[in-house]
Amino acid sequence: APSVDGRSVTPRINFVTLGVADVARATAFYEKLGLRKSAASNDDVTFFDVNGVVLVLFGMRSLAHDANIEEQPLPKFRGMSLAW
Questions:
Q1: Do 56 and 37 contact (CB within 8 A), yes or no?
Q2: How many angstroms separate the CA atoms of 82 and 46, rounded?
Q3: Which of 6, 33, 43, 45 qualifies as a FRET site for 65, CA 20 to 30 Å off?
Q4: How far apart are the two ends of the chain, measured CA to CA in Å?
């Protein structure tokens, strides 16, 4: 098992963050699938608890800013897959 400072660490995913063009529209989509947004959500970011993993919807511009990079046009295929 991996370790940090000599302590065993069990790897797990806690958050999956998706950059979206429209937070409100993406939120509505996931709510139609049955997810309920967290009270910590706001107009700029939505949080869903999905059985212990937090699905986060973040506006693309805000996500780029958070990562301290310039927002750029996205390719049609980004090489990422998420299965639920």
A1: no
A2: 17
A3: 33
A4: 26
